[in-house]
């Protein structure tokens, strides 16, 4: 099961701030709901895990993150995340290219192109929801990323952003997420009929 | 996992079982209490071969925890016939050839048992909707519909 | 008393052939007293569960079982490494290939068996499979069979690399399994080159799963003290399983007992021998205690025996009047990762060569290539005889396309091409001898019953209003009852079947057969055959099947073979008993056998009223007063090797109304006329037809097994896999004609599969017909609302 995603997030900080944060792999990983880096293996290799709870099902992926390339000139990061759930019945791979662009208003935009491949039970059972789930995960990622960039600044906005980061749930959780997936899926039904 | 004591009524008799909190009712019925009439077909509550009657409702016992049945009145296919003979619905299934391999039959009978109390005089369309939570791969349902109709008629006359 | 009325009364009391006797087996099922495999409990029994691969194609780098073994309640974790010393890590398939029992170095399909965990109960086993750590290295995946034989295709079966002599033919590519052909290629091509009209239609007969409500499973119990292995197992062919288990384990066949208890539906899914069975048997042998393994629904749909997956091209050459001159069929068959079809050995594409259908076709050529892909193995006959559903689909679809091209009505083109009643027995150009048939009568009966002309008029009006109404018509011929052992065998065992009948001193009967019922009602219908043959009421005839320790060897129940073969054996065994009974009667009545005549339940001395002996009298005498030199007792065994197949046929008509805005299809009417020869129990026949039509409806309208590019099966629970409920299942109308099989002892042909085989192309025919005026010639199944809606959209028929 393969899904291609294209995402664009407006960021409250400058391109330089965004690019600085993008290179902080631990920080970037923590923007992904339920994800964390557990070990830095050096040379751009990390070990990490992602925990997702959807309804009664908890899936916990252990995996490797490999930084393929950091292109400072283009402010682009290319990374591959590969994981197998701890029960051995599913696996997922994400090939992500993300880069920062300056926008006219002095702020910036985070662009992302990702291919997510899922195998095993997660594909069989969740295939229909894959696009929506991945989409929602990335939306949460984008919000969190924006907060992090904002928090690098000064003043009240940065304070608020720092508070929001602290409130962020440690795992992809619960009904709110399921609801947003459902809304996304329901919306897509109507979109496809155009 | 620590086991819990659970008591409920099964076909009129009190039963006490010791189960893990995660144990499903279908497994308690089949493996603990040796009531193998209800079967397991899908584990996702789609097929209905595990249907039993709990406190006046049809329930798919493959997705119900045994601990949830504490204090409940559970009825399974084993409790349908009495010393006087078969239940009217059971007889109707035989008379109308409402079963083939028999795997869905206990669940089908338990659903019909409840359905005919919910709707004692159903037409074909109402039977189709009322029984639609129970799947059968053999009969194409037509003779089950006939069986439910026959049972309804005979129950009213009884 | 010897009146006609008395005779009739005696006849009726037999509950013999032709009556709608209530089913003998129902009593236990309605009380919840059925005894299915998962109902079996044995002292000390452990539960097994399977570790499966998330990948469709990957190398296994390592398997770590330590954590699983450390879990309290876990007794063993078996992997290929444990089976290797016993040479049981691979097993032979029924199709001449081998299949991994537990993945050996590589996994070839998603959900393939990797390790078997054995634990105290099913919960601990489920916990333990999560603890088995398997490291995989992903390999390129081959999903599309059309790419299997290209140079860039990944090679799946490393065990076969370089072995270019396959079980059925030379292999052209490492992913090629076999090529199989029937008919005359050159002669067919010549007719096509010169033909006035030709049509060609590509069609995909998609992959589906039989999906019986009871999944597959077994309880294996090895008694190490007496050396006996007993296995309760959901098998449609227990005797074949015994032979295979004996060959694999080295145990003498007499030390292996296979019992098929009650079976919760088979439909072809339970013919094969699966890794779970073999691994559980090994576990029981190793541990010395009973081991139960039962699939869950996901495992059932994902790993045990799919059906179909034939990618076909049907071509017809005809003259301008629609008279068929030649048929050409090409098939690419996707067999998955191992060839584990369950066809007779000499027929790797089953009886696909019945694809000439009900038509008088002078010359034909059939070409089938089987290939490996990274999908689950199988290719079984889902409620049909070997590949007959595919064959009927391709000819019935293609003849519709021809009719459409020539502007000839579907019914008319069939009339023009039918094998005529007087042509039987008719040998088809692909080699079957159709023993009997009356196709014209069947077709006309259906057309009259539904007012075909009226329907066509209505359709004209609807089309004028922009509404979508379709009329599907199919006139099929099946080939069932495999089969004559000169051409049909499984693993070298001829496809006979057997019956053993014992008449007790008091005249009741115990009979055992080599077949095994899965809902067909054998305990009812076999008794009816014996009742009519022997004049003993069927209520006193007990039928037993499925226990290899007690029943005679038979090849089992699939491909509608029970009545054509097992039923024939039953009739012949009964006739052997009757022949002996006649000798005893002659002895008792002190006359010559020639002076006796049979009447319902007794032998009478011709012309001497009152001088008679009933079968009950004779049964008693058989145990105390037999003619000198005759051995006592009254029993017989017959192993029946049929001289030919049987050829049930029928004419089906379906009317659909399609909602133009949603693609939702309403099956307004489905009229099914079947000719299964002599009708043993009309009530059961009707039930079988209802069931077969419903399974046909499921396949045509919704069932599918979609795989993504990575080889993930998308949809292997009942959330996704379509099993029709009460609500969407149409109301069926049934009808019949009776054309007995001339070679079958009682003229019966088998019935349960015709409705599946015949209905599927009928649905497609109706769906396509709804769009035929818009030049649509074919639509691939399943005809679910979304796919139909896309068709509507593509044709620009949507209002907005």
Description:
The complex is a heterotrimer of chains A (194), B (158) and C (800). In chain A, strands 1-7-6-5-4-3-2 form a 7-stranded antiparallel sheet. Chain A has a single domain (2-185), classed as Alpha-D-Glucose-1,6-Bisphosphate, Chain A, domain 4. In chain A, helix 4 (130-151) crosses helix 5 (155-167). Helix content of chain A is 38%, strand content 41%. Chain A has 6 helices and 7 strands, in the order βααββββββαααα. In chain B, helix 2 (88-95) packs across helix 5. Chain B is α+β, with helices and mostly antiparallel strands and 158 residues long. The mean pLDDT of chain B is 97. Chain C has 3 domains: 4-34 and 497-640, 2-Layer Sandwich (Aldehyde Oxidoreductase, domain 4); 37-139 and 215-263 and 270-303, Alpha-Beta Complex (Aldehyde Oxidoreductase, domain 3); 306-482 and 644-794, Aldehyde oxidase/xanthine dehydrogenase, molybdopterin binding domain (Aldehyde Oxidoreductase, domain 4, 2-Layer Sandwich). Chain C contains 19 helices and 33 strands. A 7-stranded mixed sheet of chain C has the order 3-7-1-14-11-12-13, with helices on both faces. In chain C, strands 9, 10, 15, 16, 17 and 18 form a 6-stranded mixed sheet that branches. In chain C, helix 12 crosses helix 13 (452-464), helix 14 packs parallel to helix 15 and helix 15 (562-589) packs across helix 16 (615-622). Chains A and C meet through strand 7 and helix 3 of A and strand 8 of C.
């Amino acid at each position: 099961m393969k899904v291609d995603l294209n995402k664009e997030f407006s960021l409250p900080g400058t391109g330089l701030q965004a690019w600085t944060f993008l290179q902080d792999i631990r920080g970037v990983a923590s923007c992904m709901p339920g994800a964390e880096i557990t070990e830095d293996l050096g040379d751009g290799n990390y070990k990490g895990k992602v925990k997702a709870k959807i309804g009664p099902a908890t899936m916990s992926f252990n995996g490797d993150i490999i930084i393929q390339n950091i292109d400072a000139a283009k402010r682009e990061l290319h990374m591959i995340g590969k994981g197998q759930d701890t029960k051995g019945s599913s696996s997922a791979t994400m090939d992500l290219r993300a880069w920062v662009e300056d926008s006219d208003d002095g702020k910036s935009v985070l662009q992302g192109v990702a291919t997510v491949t899922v195998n095993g039970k997660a594909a069989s059972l969740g295939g229909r929801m894959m696009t929506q789930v991945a989409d929602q995960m990335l939306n949460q990622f984008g919000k969190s990323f924006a907060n992090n960039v904002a928090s690098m600044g000064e003043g009240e906005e940065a304070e608020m952003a720092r508070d929001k980061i602290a409130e962020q749930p440690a795992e992809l959780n619960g009904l709110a997420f399921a609801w947003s997936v459902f809304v996304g899926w329901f919306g897509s039904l109507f979109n496809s009929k155009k | 996992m620590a086991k819990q004591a659970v008591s409920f009524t099964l076909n009129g008799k009190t039963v006490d079982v010791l189960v893990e909190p995660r144990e499903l009712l279908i497994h308690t019925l089949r493996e603990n209490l040796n009531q193998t009439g209800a079967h397991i077909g899908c584990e996702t509550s789609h097929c209905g071969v595990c249907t039993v009657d709990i406190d006046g409702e049809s329930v798919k016992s493959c997705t119900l925890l045994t601990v949830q049945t504490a204090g409940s009145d559970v009825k399974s296919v084993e409790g349908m016939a009495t010393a006087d003979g078969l239940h009217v619905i059971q007889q109707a299934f035989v008379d109308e050839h409402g079963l083939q391999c028999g795997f869905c039959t206990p669940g089908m009978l338990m659903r019909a048992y409840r359905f005919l109390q919910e709707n004692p005089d159903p037409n074909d369309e109402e039977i189709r909707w009322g029984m639609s939570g129970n799947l059968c791969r053999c009969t194409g349902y037509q003779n089950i519909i006939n069986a439910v109709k026959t049972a309804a008629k005979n129950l009213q006359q009884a | 008393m010897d009146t006609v009325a008395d005779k009739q009364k005696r006849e009726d009391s037999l509950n013999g052939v032709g009556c709608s006797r209530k089913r003998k087996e129902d009593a236990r099922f309605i009380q919840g007293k059925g005894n299915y495999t998962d109902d079996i409990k044995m002292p000390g029994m452990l539960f097994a569960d399977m570790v499966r691969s998330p990948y469709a194609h990957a190398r296994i780098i390592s398997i770590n079982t330590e954590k699983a073994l450390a879990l309290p309640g876990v007794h063993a974790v078996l992997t290929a490494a444990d089976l290797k010393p016993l040479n049981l890590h691979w097993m032979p398939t029924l199709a001449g290939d081998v299949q991994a029992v537990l993945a050996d170095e590589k996994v070839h399909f998603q959900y393939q068996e990797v390790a078997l965990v054995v634990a105290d109960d099913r919960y601990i086993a489920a916990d333990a499979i999560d603890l088995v750590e398997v490291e995989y290295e992903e390999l390129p995946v081959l999903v599309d069979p059309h790419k299997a034989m290209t140079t860039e295709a990944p090679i799946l079966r490393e065990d076969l690399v370089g072995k270019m002599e396959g079980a059925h033919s030379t292999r052209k590519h490492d992913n090629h399994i076999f090529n199989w052909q029937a008919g005359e290629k050159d002669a067919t091509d010549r007719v096509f080159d010169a033909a006035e009209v030709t049509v060609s239609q590509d069609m995909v007969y998609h992959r589906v799963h039989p999906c019986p409500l009871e999944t597959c499973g077994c309880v294996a119990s090895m008694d190490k003290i007496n050396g006996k292995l007993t296995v309760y197992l959901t098998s449609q062919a227990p005797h074949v399983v015994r032979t295979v288990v004996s060959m694999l384990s080295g145990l003498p066949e007499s030390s292996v007992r296979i019992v098929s208890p009650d079976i919760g539906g088979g439909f072809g899914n339970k013919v094969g021998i699966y890794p779970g069975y073999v691994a559980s048997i090994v576990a029981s042998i190793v541990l010395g205690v009973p081991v139960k393994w039962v699939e869950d629904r996901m495992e059932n749909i994902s790993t045990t025996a799919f059906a179909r997956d034939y990618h076909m091209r049907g071509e017809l050459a005809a003259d301008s009047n629609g008279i068929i001159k030649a048929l050409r069929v090409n098939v690419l068959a996707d067999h998955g990762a191992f060839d584990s079809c369950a066809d007779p050995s000499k027929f790797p594409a089953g009886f696909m060569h019945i694809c000439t259908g009900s038509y008088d076709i002078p010359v034909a050529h059939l070409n089938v290539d089987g290939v490996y892909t990274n999908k689950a193995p199988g290719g079984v006959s889902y409620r049909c005889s070997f590949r007959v559903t595919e064959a009927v689909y391709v000819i019935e679809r293609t003849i519709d396309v021809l009719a459409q091209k020539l502007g000839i009505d579907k019914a008319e083109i069939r009339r023009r091409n039918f094998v005529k009643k007087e042509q039987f027995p008719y040998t088809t150009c692909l080699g079957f001898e159709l023993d009997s048939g009356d196709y014209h009568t069947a077709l006309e009966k259906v057309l009259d019953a539904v007012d075909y002309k009226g329907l066509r008029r209505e359709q004209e009006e609807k089309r004028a209003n922009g509404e979508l109404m379709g009329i599907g018509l199919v006139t099929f011929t099946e080939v069932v009852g495999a089969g004559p052992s000169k051409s049909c065998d499984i693993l070298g065992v001829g496809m006979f079947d057997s019956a053993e009948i014992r008449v007790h001193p008091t005249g009741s009967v115990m009979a055992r057969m080599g077949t095994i019922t899965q809902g067909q009602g054998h305990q009812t219908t076999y008794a009816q055959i014996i009742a009519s043959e022997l004049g003993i009421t069927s209520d006193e005839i007990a039928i037993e099947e499925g226990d290899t320790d007690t029943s005679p060897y038979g090849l089992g129940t699939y491909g509608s073979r029970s009545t054509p073969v097992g039923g024939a054996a039953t009739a012949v065994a009964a006739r052997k008993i009757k022949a002996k009974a006649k000798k005893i009667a002659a002895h008792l009545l002190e006359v010559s056998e020639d002076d006796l005549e049979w009447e319902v339940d007794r032998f009478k001395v011709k012309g001497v009223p009152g001088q008679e002996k009933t079968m009950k009298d004779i049964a008693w005498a058989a145990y105390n007063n037999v003619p000198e030199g005759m051995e006592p007792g009254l029993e017989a065994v017959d192993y029946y090797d049929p001289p030919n197949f049987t050829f049930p046929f029928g004419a089906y008509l379906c009317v659909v109304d399609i909602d133009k805005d949603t693609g939702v299809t309403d099956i307004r009417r489905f009229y099914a006329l079947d000719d299964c020869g002599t009708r043993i129990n009309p009530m059961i026949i009707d039930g079988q037809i209802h069931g077969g039509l419903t399974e046909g409806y499921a396949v045509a309208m919704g069932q599918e097994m979609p795989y993504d590019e990575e080889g993930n099966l998308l949809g292997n629970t009942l959330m996704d896999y379509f099993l029709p409920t009460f609500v969407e299942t149409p109301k069926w109308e049934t009808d019949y004609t009776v054309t007995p099989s001339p070679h079958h002892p009682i003229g019966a042909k088998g019935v349960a599969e015709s409705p599946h085989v015949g209905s599927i192309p009928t649905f497609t025919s109706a769906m396509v017909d709804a769009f035929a005026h818009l030049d649509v010639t074919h639509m691939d199944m399943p005809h679910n609302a979304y796919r139909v809606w896309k068709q509507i959209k593509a044709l620009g028929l949507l209002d907005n």
